[in-house]
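Suppose you are handed a protein chain with no further information: no name, no annotation, nothing but its sequence. What can you learn? This example shows the usual starting point.
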Amino acid sequence: MIKTLSIKDFIIIDELKLDFDKGFNVITGETGAGKSIIINAIDLAFGARANKELIKTDKTRAVIELTLIIDSKFPESFFDEYGIEKFGNELIISKEITESGSRSRINGVLVTQDVIKALRESVIDIHNQHMTYTYIQPKYHIILLDSYGDERHNELLVQYKKLYTDYKDTLKSLEDAKNAGMQSEQHTEFLKFQIDEIENANIEDIQEDIKLNEELNILANVEKLKDLTYSSYWTLYGDDGCVLDAIGKIKTNLSKAAETDSNLNQYETSIIDIQETLREISSNLRNYSESLELDAQRLDEIQQRIDLLDKIKRKYGSTLEEVLENYEKFKQEYNSIEFSQEEIERLELKKAEIEKALKNASELLTESRKSLSKTLSELIRKELEQLDMPKVRFEIEIKPCEYTESGCDNVEFLISTNISESPKPLAKIASGGEISRVMLAIKTIFAKTDNINTIIFDEIDTGISGNACQAVAQTITKLAKSHQIISITHQPIIAAKSDRHFYVAKTQDEKTSVKVYTLDENNKIKAIAVLAAGEVTQDSINFAKQLIYN
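A reasonable first move is to predict its three-dimensional structure. Written in structure tokens, the prediction is:
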């Protein structure tokens, strides 16, 4: 469950800290006061997309931090798998948003969005208006149905998806093989010529041409290099009055001078180092000069090799690295063209075998879905009855379709809210209030089967009033006995059932700011009174008390 939420410099919030209760937490306030900002902040902390526009004006970053309390159902492997230190039963999630991007941390450890997503799926369910829209789309219904499945159903789904992937891969390989067989013989011969020409060049070092040109430059200037290096050696060491002789005299002078002033020892030491360095340089220059010889045969070999490499580069790439890259491409294309009829026949046989297995797996998956659909549709119907929809009919329709990643089933939720009407697609029939109750029914059912202990509703009570509102309040109150519920609401009947009540207020003086107050008993009564009547009067106060205490 969420213990605390801290927000700093986020949208229009300067700084905010909320302490949530383990039961039913309700958030109220006037329209536009900033209630949804709180839910958005939690959503962002759990991996929703962030951008720099979320940073408060004139600030450089926004920070959101959540402290969670985890229970014994939380997987211990999570900490080892992602290298996260365990802080008792607390888990601290932080999200920092800057102009250049965003970063997420868990217990201080920088983590990827994949890690945040894995955490989200195991601890929290956030239901907002966008999710309501998603739920009524038929393409999502198969996901909802599968997510209610038991371990055996999940195994069937995994098995089918693996076979489907193999099937698609085999179809692609078969298509490539058939296309390769249609390539012209002339093109095949040309590819073979290109491959052979590059192979015959025997390129083993992508820097060979550069190194050969350097060697060629040296061989072409042997006499010049020999004269220059030997002259340098002679100046340093070989002639009377050479540089090393002069330095030797300097060393002798400094040695004598240091007998008088010891401060000169440091200069004598430096001169000794210079003297040794110059001796080594002069020796190396002499060896280098003596090693230089004009090798006409080597010069000719290098020139021929450079000419060959230049020819190869003109045809296959501006560098030897590009030449070798194109060589690999030529080989891949040539190998694909070389697919034989036997390969095509082999792939055709493999395709038939996988199709047979895929058909069997899809049939088992369909049977499992039909069984699940009966159970789930009946559970949803019963929940809807509890939500003041006594005559409702709810069905999950499963129709066959072509092979897809999810199976051979089109799944769609159907509903009828009038006894005289047959069930029709949820998206076409249900009103806003009816859809809200369907969503709440689904959430209630799934909450009983998963390990998630925090559910967030952003205005799940849209479009309802009267008895329906009372029914929704009772359902949420019941759900809050086993789960932490955080909900934005405009309904006094629902807000009255909360264990903790937050009131959001927005002020606009020189700048816009948002404050959130945790209400005590008296202020909660006043807030419910305002929700019910728009103002605090004795009648609205009495009504609020009746909602809270009855």
